[in-house]
Automatic annotation (TrEMBL):
It is an enzyme of class 1 (oxidoreductase). NCBIfam families: tRNA epoxyqueuosine(34) reductase QueG (TIGR00276). The keyword Secreted does not apply. Its cofactor is cob(II)alamin; [4Fe-4S] cluster. [4Fe-4S] cluster 1 binds at residues 197, 200, 203, 257. Keywords: 4Fe-4S, Cobalamin, Cobalt, Cytoplasm, Iron, Iron-sulfur, Metal-binding, Oxidoreductase, Queuosine biosynthesis, tRNA processing. Pathway: tRNA modification; tRNA-queuosine biosynthesis. This is Epoxyqueuosine reductase. Monomer. It is found in: Cytoplasm.
């Protein structure tokens, strides 16, 4: 193809991406050499904790051409997920409700994004065939693939890396997923943005578990997202109070980020929060049997953690809720059920212990500050 044809095709691809529901698409090459020592350092420091998949693929994460041989370009796309009924402040400030990360209240994003990326690749192949170009090969990826998505998106001009390590777009903030198409077409590449967080440190200061180290690196083992989603087994006691009512993931570093003040709502109905997960009562969720859990979370990313870890997380949140006889009764009743193993039982004991002693502070000062920041910075609270 001539360079003019390739330039025209790159514009077409960006339009098609928008038609397919992506907010933006950028194009970059496969060179992530500069990221390799940083990734290695992150792994050497053990910041991946139990996420063995981060170490298993070695440096393939930084070598998209090894992941899919023949690849010379990466089409990096982002899709907004902020749901309309987010209600952050009311949810975080009520310790009797469970807080679920806003990316997870609807349908699992992996399926939708991979499907749309596949359609995009098919359109490119069909277009090339029409103009007599054959041999186009592509592969769509989202999240679970061993590839460094955030650095690729940054190189493709979709935003800069915030101090919380997520990608920030100057117009859209960070409430979006990333996905890629690896392809063997020599399309023209985009230029990275030249912007930064400047002197802001709001996310570092607000992280409930101090997971964001001051050099833009997240110690995964301390992040509530890891502790409530990725970690199998017991949540270390040192983090339980700080977890508050966050029962699946955490959004605090994004909630206090000033760049998110202008973030758009999602255009995908799939990412709207399911009714039973809008401002959910902890006691209601804790009463779900395994069968109910599996059916009510069908098609949702939450299902992946399984019923035991779901109970584990809710037990911690119940331990952080204000004293209430109904909670103590529910905890004691759950302890007797067949669905509870030793690990969950230990979390229930911890929660009961919290109810036997007065909490100095029901909602931590950091969370109170996050709530105030939302009330000030996100006027419509989404
Ligand atoms: C593992 C993982 C996690 C782990 C570890 C997080 C982390 N920051 O690494 C856990 C479970 C904690 C996690 C949590 C979340 N995640 Co996550 N996660 C991933 C995953 C699978 C890999 C990320 C990765 O490669 N980490 C390894 C480290 C080394 O990579 P990195 O942070 O990019 O690190 C770079 C910097 O640390 C820097 N660096 C290292 N050392 C140094 C030193 C200096 C001085 C400097 C300047 C820089 C620097 O270079 C590193 C290498 O490039 C990606 C998907 C993917 N395949 O890429 C999603 C991904 C990053 N996650 C995502 C999301 C949405 C989240 C959550 C918001 C979910 C939630 N609400 O609970 C939280 C946010 C927590 C946070 N602040 O990071 C999105 C982010 C979208 C965006 N806008 O950027 C991604 C891209 C998934 C997707 N497809 O959309 N996640
Ligand atoms: S998601 Fe929560 S715990 Fe993890 S880095 Fe952000 S603020 Fe900290
Ligand atoms: S809160 Fe501030 S430092 Fe953190 S990512 Fe947003 S702009 Fe950057």
């Amino acid at each position: 193809m001539t360079s003019l044809e390739l330039s025209e095709l790159s514009l077409q691809i960006k339009n098609w991406a928008q038609e397919l529901g992506f907010a933006q698409l950028g194009i970059t090459d496969t060179d992530l050499k500069a990221e390799e020592p940083k990734l290695q350092q992150w792994l050497d420091n053990g910041y991946h904790g139990e996420m063995s998949y981060m170490a298993n693929h070695g440096m393939m994460r930084a070598r998209p051409h090894e992941l899919h041989p023949g690849t010379i370009r990466v089409l990096s796309a982002r899709m907004d997920y902020l749901p309309p009924e987010a209600g952050f402040a009311s949810n975080l400030s009520n310790p009797n409700l469970g807080y679920i990360s806003r990316y997870a209240g609807g349908r699992d994003y992996h399926k939708l994004i991979r499907k749309q990326l596949k359609k995009l690749g098919d359109r490119i192949v069909a277009h090339c065939q029409q103009i007599g170009v054959t041999g186009i090969d592509f592969r769509p990826f989202v999240d679970s693939a061993p590839v460094l998505e955030r650095p690729l998106a940054e190189k493709a001009g979709l935003g800069w890396t915030g101090k919380h390590s997520l990608l920030l777009n100057p117009d859209a903030g960070s409430w979006f997923f990333l996905g890629e198409v690896l392809i063997n077409l020599p399309l023209p590449i985009d230029i990275p943005l030249n912007q930064s967080c400047k002197t802001c440190v709001a996310c570092i200061k607000s992280c409930p578990t101090n997971a964001i180290l001051d050099n833009n690196v997240v110690d995964g083992r301390r992040c509530i997202s890891y502790l409530t989603i990725e970690l199998q087994g017991a949540i270390p006691e040192e983090f339980r109070r700080a977890i508050g009512n966050r029962i699946y993931g955490c959004d605090d570093c994004q909630l206090v980020c000033p760049i998110n003040a202008k973030a758009p709502l999602t255009q995908q109905a799939d990412f709207h929060i399911r009714n039973q997960l809008i401002q959910p009562e902890l006691l209601t969720l804790f009463a779900w049997s395994e069968k109910q859990f599996l059916s009510l979370t069908e098609g949702s990313p939450i299902r992946r953690i399984g019923h035991k870890n779901w109970l584990r997380n809710i037990a911690v949140a119940l331990g952080n809720a204000p004293f209430n006889n109904d909670i103590v009764t529910a905890l004691n009743a759950r302890k007797q059920s067949d669905e509870v193993d030793d690990m969950v039982s230990e979390h229930i004991d911890w929660a009961l212990k919290q109810h036997s002693q007065a909490h100095a502070e029901l909602i931590s000062r950091k969370t109170q500050r996050v709530v105030r920041a939302i009330e000030k910075g996100l006027p419509r609270d989404a």
